[in-house]
Structures are given as C-alpha cells and as structure tokens.
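Task: sequence design from structure.
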C-alpha cells in the first residue's frame, strides 16, 4: 500500500485561495484529508539526501517510512516510531516535517523551487539580484523556506514535525508565528508583502494513540508593498539549485551560481551522460548523475540513480559563468513509481532504467 491519507486542519486562509491539493475548487472549501504518494515522498527524500545509497524501489527506502503500520490507509507508525531513541525521534520528526512541507508546497502551488532562508539572510547578492535583500529584523528562529506561489507571489514557509498535536490556539504555535516577524524581504530597499505558511505534521503512532497524522497549515501574512514583478522568483530558482548542487560533485557549479566569483568561460567540464531505457516517453532524454559512484563505474552500479537533465545542467553552468539564462520548468513525470522527474529537471529512478552513452563537455 504505497499511498496513505493524512488529515488536514487549516487556519486563517483568505477566501480567494487559489491553490490545489488541500482546496476543493468545486465546493470552494478546504479538504479534510489528502492522499500522500509514499514513493514520490521517498524520491523527494532521496534527492534531498542524495548520498543514500540504497536502490530506489519502494517507499521504505525513506528510513522513517519503514515503521508505518502495514495494511491501513492512515499515516500511522508502529510503537514510538519513527526513531529508537529520543535524539533519533527528534531528527525523524524534523525530516518528516520538512519533507511533507515540500510535498505540500509542490502539490498545492505546482512549484518545487524552494530556497533556504538561512542561506540568503543578510547576503549581498550579485548582478541581476543586487536590488533584492532578505534581512533579519530581530534575533531568534526564522522560517525555513522561501518560494513563489501559483500567482507569482512570494511566500515563506516554516516546517515542523511533532509527536503530539500543537493546535492553532496553543502557545507553541504562537511562537512559530513570531518567526515570520523576524525577517523582511526587500526590493529596492522597500519591504514587500509576503505570504506565510506554517506546516506542522503531528505524527501519529501507537504510543500517542492518535488515529492518524494531522497536517496543520496556517496562512499568516507579512505587511508591505505588494509584489508585482521582478526577479525574486528567479533568485529563488537559482538558490534552489545552489542548495542541491552544492551537496554533489557539482558543488563548484552550485557555489558559483550566486557568487561574485564566477566560473571561467574558457574551462570545460567533462560529464558522464546516461539515457533512459524502457520508458518510451523519455528515451531521448540525456541525464547526468549527481553522485560519484556513476563516474567511477559508469557501466555498473546498484545505487539509486539520482541525476539532472543535461540541458538543465548546461543552463546552470552558463549562469555560473555570469550569463543571464532563463530557467524553464520541465514536466513532472512518475512512471510506475520507479522513475520520477521533477519540475526542476532532477531525476530519481532505479538504476536499471538508465544506460551510459558517453561523455560530454559543458
């Protein structure tokens, strides 16, 4: 059973909400539960934790999901799981909360470009982004992510995972709201209005006797000038790739995307290229692996294949060299839960679905 249901509780949303997934446009009301595709959730986890070296065949390659109670439709874990100790349970709660938050953003707004606020706070940005700043107003914890919604409006997101319910009226939830007042997004030195989303996953297990996990979602708003146009969306996209590539063998590309020190126009980089086999709709796509194992032994590997489209990587190299190149979205694809391609061009699939075809210089 690779799909599970999670209960939904919403608060403070505006009546003209235009997102999907948690909102039924026919009845013009928020849904009470959503269905989670565990295989896709696993693929997202593996992309974020790309050095997980187990084959991507089933959802239980996301370690925490091993402990879901079998043969039920609810998102409920065995015993006190996931996590065998206090520290492990805390870390599993954090990872689940952040992964579900990313899942919520992509499914609700059709956008999986999310930048970590921490990497942009107080940062001087180069070139085309030098009129944008994200500043800390006061000390304390800040939201986790910044992204654009389906109306091209900037949003902040704070992701939480807990082993108990934290309702909207609780003091702990109020402390999370205060995080949004600690940061300010400015265009040309003027604060802009930013939407905010707090997502809290209350994780159900046999120990806490919750009959299902609950995703609490609130929509706070930060005041300021309404954002109408500009390159904030592009900044978020570039920062999204910076975060992911900086953890791979292509960290020199990721680290140059928002740096004043750009890559040389004269130097070329050799990459191994694979094509997709067994899926006719993707057979002509060229994919570059992100992790070293495929570069050392390109003809044989049991690792999950985690890569990025060659065209996308070529565009990112151009940006890392200082060119202003558009970043186009790609079509999401899920083939029998063994092949996932996301809007940003990253691919997670079983290794038997790819075939080495040679090298390219970019």
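Answer:
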């Amino acid at each position: 059973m690779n799909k599970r249901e999670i209960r939904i509780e919403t608060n403070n949303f505006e009546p003209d909400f235009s997102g999907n997934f948690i909102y039924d446009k026919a009845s013009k009301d928020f849904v009470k539960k959503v269905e989670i595709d565990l295989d896709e959730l696993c693929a997202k986890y593996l992309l974020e934790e790309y050095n997980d070296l187990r084959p991507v065949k089933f959802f239980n390659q996301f370690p925490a999901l091993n402990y879901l109670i079998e043969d039920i439709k609810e998102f409920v874990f065995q015993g006190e799981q996931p996590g065998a100790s206090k520290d492990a349970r805390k870390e599993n709660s954090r990872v689940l909360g952040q992964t579900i938050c990313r899942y919520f953003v992509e499914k609700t707004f059709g956008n999986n470009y999310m930048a970590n606020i921490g990497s942009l706070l107080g940062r001087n940005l180069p070139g085309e982004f030098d009129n944008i700043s994200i500043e800390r107003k006061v000390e304390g914890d800040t939201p986790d992510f910044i992204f654009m919604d389906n109306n091209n409006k900037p949003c902040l997101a704070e992701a939480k995972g807990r082993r108990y319910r934290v309702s909207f009226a609780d003091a702990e939830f109020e402390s999370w709201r205060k995080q949004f007042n600690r940061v300010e997004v400015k265009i040309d030195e003027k604060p802009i209005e930013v939407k905010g989303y707090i997502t809290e996953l209350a994780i159900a297990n046999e120990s806490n006797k919750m009959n299902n996990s609950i995703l609490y979602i609130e929509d706070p708003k930060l005041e300021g000038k309404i954002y109408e146009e500009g390159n904030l969306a592009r900044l978020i996209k570039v920062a999204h790739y910076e975060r992911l590539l900086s953890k791979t063998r292509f960290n020199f590309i990721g680290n140059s995307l928002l740096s004043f020190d750009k890559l040389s126009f004269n130097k070329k980089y050799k990459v191994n290229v694979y094509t997709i086999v067994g899926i006719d709709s993707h057979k002509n796509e060229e994919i570059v692996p992100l992790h070293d194992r495929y570069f050392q032994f390109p003809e044989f590997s049991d690792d999950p294949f985690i890569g990025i489209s060659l065209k996308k990587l070529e565009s990112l190299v151009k940006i890392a060299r200082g060119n202003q190149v558009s970043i186009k979205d790609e079509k999401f694809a899920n083939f029998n839960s063994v092949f996932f391609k996301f809007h940003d061009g990253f691919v997670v699939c079983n290794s038997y679905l790819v075939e080495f075809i040679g090298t390219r210089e970019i």
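Residues 296-300 have pLDDT under 50 and may be disordered.
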